[in-house]
Every structure is written in structure tokens, then in C-alpha cells.
Fold each of these.
Amino acid sequence: MTEKDNCHIFHKILKKIDLFSKPIQLTINKKQSYKTIQGGIISLFLILLIIVILGFYLNDIFNHVNPNFFVEKSELDFNPVYSLNSYNYFIGVRIEDDDYK
């Protein structure tokens, strides 16, 4: 392959990944949008940037770098008194077998 053929193939690849192509009202070469090399370059850069940023975030998550956690403690300003009797006091019990298959 010549250098011109390689360049042509690279241009076709960049045009295929163009995320910023503009839709047109008429069809050009039976296509609904017009894709450009510049749009392909920007799209390729954006995809690589997203992959790199995602990689850094996943690396931080899996290596437990800078873990963030929040603790919130709240108390009631008043302690209401409830009168419990056999009509308004319900209890629930759950029995579970950990070895059940």
C-alpha cells in the first residue's frame, strides 16, 4: 500500500467516527448526514478523553484511593411519649436458615 492509500483509509475511519455530523434535508451519496475528517478527529479525541477519565476513576475506585464517606447524626429535639397497648403494638419476627439451599 502506498502512503496515499494509508492516508485515504485513515480519512475514511475518521469520517466514520464523526459524532458531530450535521443532518441534511437532502441525501448526499444516499447518506442522511455529512461526516467530515475534522468531526472525526474531534470525536476520536472526545472518546479517548472519556476512556482516560473513566480509567482514572475506576483505578481510584478499585485501589480505594481517597475514599469519601459521610456521617450524619440527627437527634430529635423532643422525646414524644407513646402509650403502647395490645392494639397499637406490633412486632415482627423473621427466622432465617443461612445454610438453606
Amino acid sequence: MYFEIIGEITEIETIAADRAIRDILHLKKRYGAGRWRKLKGTGMVRLSNGKIRQAGIHWYEAHGIGKKGVKIKRFLDCNYSAMSFRRKPESRRSREWIPCQARGR
């Protein structure tokens, strides 16, 4: 799903830096060397269908290179995550998709 970040990202936190990032080899190969950090924050996004939602956003960033790999991790204006899984009570291995309740949005 394509989206556009509207306004400013708030509550920015560093999740991991340099060797603690799983995709560090991919980032260095594709974008070049730098002090890579994985960050998270919240912000308003405009989805491809035109809806505006508040979302948890994750991305990679390096000085002089900028933001790369920006993705929506979850929507914050509903009860459930739009992209999360919950385990079924009868089985530990199976997963059940739980969609976000739109509630008229």
C-alpha cells in the first residue's frame, strides 16, 4: 500500500544502531556506508485510497543519506493493528489475521 507522510513525525525513538540492525548489509550495499539507525515514531499518513490515518512508522536513516525503507507498522487510531497477527487459542503455531476496525473512517 502506498502512502504519504503528512506533517511531522513525533515521538521518535532509536530502535537499533549499526550492527544491531538485521538488514545492515543490505543497507550498506544498496545505499552506501554510514552510521545506520533504525527509528520509530508516530505521524499522520495519507493512504492511496485518500484516507488520513495516525500510524506508527518505522524507517532506517543514516547521516548524509536520509530516510530509507519507510513503512507503516500499525495504525494507532483503531482497536487493532492493521498488520498484526494474533494466535488462535487452540493452536500455538497457527495465526489468525485480525483486521483494523474502520468504524466509519
Amino acid sequence: MKKVIDFFFNEIGFSRIYTAHAHENPVSGKVMQKCGMVYEGTMRQALNKNAGLQDKVNYAILSDDYFSIRTNKHQAKLHARGLAGLSSPETEPVCSLL
């Protein structure tokens, strides 16, 4: 899922990506959170599944948030390596996942 998010922000230029899961499937929500997505609310009885109506849990991520998260993670890695403050090509974030 991270590669898909990266593709849509970096290659396509989306400003927002959103998704949802059934309330009865909280593991999907954990995957979304791990990818940096933010919980935006629950719509009651918004999904019509085989088991009947279910609540729909919504998540989204904005491109600004995505790039901020990536920059912060990159800066933390540099700091851990003792390279904080350097701006050489070796310390710039690389974005070639595909």
C-alpha cells in the first residue's frame, strides 16, 4: 500500500488519497495507520455487505502530510547517523520505489 500511495503522490500528483474499511475489520485500519493515513470518522451503516449493513471507517492522507512524514523520517535517520544538517546528494531523500 505504501508504494501505491507513493506512486499517486509522486507520479500522478494527487493531493489527497482516501479509503475505508468495514468496522468489523479493524486490521485494515491498522494497515492504513501504518501507511500514515489519518482516521477521518465512521459512517454508520454505510456499507451494504453480505452480512447486512455495516459501519464504514474512513481514512485519508494529504500529500503535504505524506511529504512531511517522509522528510521527518529522513531527518531522524540522518540524526541517528550523526549527519544532521548536511545537505549533500548522499543525504537527500531518494524516491524511486517503482
Amino acid sequence: MREWWTNLPPERKREYLDKRKPKPRKRPNKRWAELPLEKRRAHWTVHNAIRDGRLMKEPCEVCGVEKTDAHHDDYSKPLEVRWLCRKHHGERHRKYLSGMEAF
């Protein structure tokens, strides 16, 4: 072994080795994996379309806030989305789940 390594105190050796350890791989999110394939496919289609410039994010259709999420009314039409802020996106889902007509 090299002299610098043999002269290193044990706690410094441990620090050095810990920094060099490969980070554990992230496991797929269980909730994401349990979503229906059609829903995941629609999500990735929108993600890729935004990345490639084929789809542009728009302001919330209810309040006009710039930071929005894409909402699918029909997952079989992945690029037909409504742009809603987090607040109105959540409201839309809660109204849908409760059986009420959502805006």
C-alpha cells in the first residue's frame, strides 16, 4: 500500500471510503408503479411533448397562475390536457371523486 494510506488515521480512511461508495439506486415509486398503464403512458406522452417543444405549458384556465399541471379528462387522448394550478387541479379531482360536476 502507499505510504499516505497507511499513515492515514482510521476515521479518515472511513470518511474516504464512504465518499467513494456508490449511492444506492432509487427504487421505482410503488404508487407510480400501481397506476394504470394508460395513465402512466399519458403522463409520459405529455412530459416528452413538453420537452420536445410540441406542447407548451399554459396558465391555469381558472385563475391564470403560471405554474400549472396538465390534467387529463380522457387518458386515451394524452395530448388533450387542461392546464390547472395545483389548487384547482386538486379541486377538480376532489369534485370528480365526490361525483359532483367539476368546473
